[in-house]
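User: Reviewer 2 asked us to show a designed sequence for the structure in our supplementary figure. I'm pasting the structure tokens here. Could you produce the per-position amino acids so we can include them in the response letter?
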């Protein structure tokens, strides 16, 4: 690697980590300014004040009142200049430190805007791709591909109305265990605090919570995914605290309703790999990041 390549690599590294570098400089400079101000106060302030007293004393010895006022004014101005010169280095360091912190925030904000624009482009491309898949192969095929599902015949033991057990062959959807999105979750005992071992109860519960979520959306005008996670007993994520739904019937950008994407699927039983357990897959139809739209509309804070 030659010198030019090393220089360009160093510049690239600095640009990449410029927000972190600026924030460190800003915090360090703020602390340094405070320490310098304290040191200057301890070492030099007494001398400045003593000099002020000497000037005032000299001014009061002037015979005429008019000259005495003029000399007192000069004494106070000179003291002010001395204090300014004493604390100017600390104030300059403080100002530069605050500027560095604001510059760091500005860089991060621009990067977030660029990332949001890139995400919007990717999201739009993905939606167009899905639309073409649905048009050619149908919604079921799109759902199976996106959620990593395939149809398979399995044998299960079921109990009939008379209490007799019998083996039944069923064609079901098997999941490969992967999540179709960052927001999708399995509602099953052990993965959601509100889930029970009873599948029918779990299905009734999630459908009820879906209705509650829609009522909240219409009432408050917005709903975060983290609020839904809380109601279902699912652990919050960083993303869930910024994405969600906005209710605006005048806009065609949002669905204006909450859909949990409830789907009955089967997956391998973790306790018995040869068996399959029936679970509920939830894939929420969030509108995307709603922090900015909610803030602009004045919705956040009203809940």
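Assistant: Here is a per-position design you can include in the supplement:
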């Amino acid at each position: 690697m030659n010198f030019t390549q090393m220089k360009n690599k160093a510049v690239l590294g600095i640009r990449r980590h410029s927000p972190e570098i600026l924030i460190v400089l800003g915090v360090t400079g703020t602390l340094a300014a405070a320490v310098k101000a304290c040191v200057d106060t301890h070492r030099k302030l007494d001398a400045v004040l003593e000099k002020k007293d000497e000037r005032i004393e000299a001014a009061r010895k002037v015979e005429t009142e008019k000259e005495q006022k003029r000399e007192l004014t000069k004494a106070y101005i000179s003291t002010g200049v001395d204090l300014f010169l004493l604390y100017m280095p600390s104030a300059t360091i403080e100002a530069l430190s605050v500027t560095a912190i604001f510059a760091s925030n500005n860089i991060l904000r621009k990067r977030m805007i660029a990332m949001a624009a890139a995400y919007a482009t990717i999201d739009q491309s993905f939606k167009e791709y899905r639309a073409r898949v649905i048009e050619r192969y149908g919604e079921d095929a799109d759902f199976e591909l996106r959620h990593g599902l395939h149809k398979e015949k399995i044998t299960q033991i079921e109990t009939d109305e008379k209490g007799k057990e019998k083996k039944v062959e069923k064609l079901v959807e098997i999941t490969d265990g992967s999540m179709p999105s960052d927001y999708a979750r399995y509602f099953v005992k052990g993965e959601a605090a509100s889930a029970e071992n009873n599948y029918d109860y779990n299905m009734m519960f999630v459908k009820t919570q879906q209705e509650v979520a829609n009522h909240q959306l219409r009432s408050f005008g917005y709903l975060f995914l983290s609020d839904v996670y809380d109601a279902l007993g699912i652990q919050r994520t960083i993303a869930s605290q910024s994405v969600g739904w906005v209710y605006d019937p005048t806009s065609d950008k949002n669905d204006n309703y909450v859909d949990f994407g409830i789907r009955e699927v089967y997956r391998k039983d973790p306790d018995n790999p040869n068996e399959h357990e029936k679970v509920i897959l939830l894939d929420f139809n969030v509108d995307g990041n709603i922090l900015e739209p909610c803030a602009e509309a004045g919705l956040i804070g009203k809940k």
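For the response letter, you might also mention the following. The mean pLDDT is 85. Residues 3-118 form one domain.
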